[in-house]
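Glycerol dehydrogenase
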Amino acid sequence: MSKFIFQSPGKYIQGQGVLESLGQETKKLAQKPLLVSDEVVWSITGETIKASFKEADVEFVYEEFNGEASEVEIDRLSETGKGNNADIVIGVGGGKTLDTSKAVADNLGAPVIIVPTTASTDAPTSSLSVIYSDEGEFTGYRFYDKNPDLILVDSKVVVNAPLKLFASGMSDAMATLVEARATLRRKGETMVGGQPTLASIAIAEKCEETLFKHGHAAYKAASKGLVTPQVEAVIEANTLLSGLGFENGGLAAAHAIHNGFTTLSGDIHHLSHGEKVTYGTLVQLLLENSSDEVMEKYISFYKAIGMPTTLKEMHLEDTSYEDLVKVGQLAIDPNDTLGNLSDKITAEDVANAILAVSELSQKQ
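Predicted structure tokens:
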């Protein structure tokens, strides 16, 4: 029996200065927040957040995130939450901080508020976390019964983050329709356990349309720290549209190949999630036998926003073919999502496509 499922967060707020409302929004949900953030993000947002909670007359406990979305870190923060009788978890920062905060909230059986300080991934809205080992190797997904209760995105904070993160978010979002389309063709299973809905495909299409239409203008404005209508549109595409689209529309090869890259050592681990998804998306398009025109369209977009499209830019120019096959072996793992593209693709097929993408990109 076919089953169609659509999930979404309880509330989404985006705009300049909305971080100032965090205290009041929290008060609507709970009274004893555990707030998780890293040192850098807290130095940027801490004063605004503290003033917001003071105005709302809510006391919170702050705990610094150690940097890796691992089970060890999740357990540590969960114990902190239990020790302080926290009745809500607030994650402030990037993707790994937010994924960890969702896991901690799940452990505590508490609501969760997500405050992304970049538009670098589509993680904020989803009902899952990507879990890594303490050394940073992908170990799997963790799924939850519901999406976050609130996502609050301050556009001014986002454009003051490093520009590469804004571009990485566009690259992560650009995979949304590519992967959802593949899942739809295969009648594959989405991240919420159903087949893609009409709504999810429509959202994924709007996501890609927004990026191609406004991405370059938004990138230029964000490089100057400016919030423009194009920037607001791309922040929404990166965060809300991509998040709803990937979760309800499905993942395929692009993210599976990203996960495959985690098996490698070296400078590739200095790249962001979106940078690695960039390359994974191009590999998926090539494996789909996309036309030269389609490949050129995506490669040109990525190049214009400084994303890697060659092995050299991925810090993989000296990687052996055998190691690329290892990437392919992890990517085609039945527990990952490449099967939503095809279950006939081999590890060698993936390795060959990784090499071919680089050759094609160098000729543009």
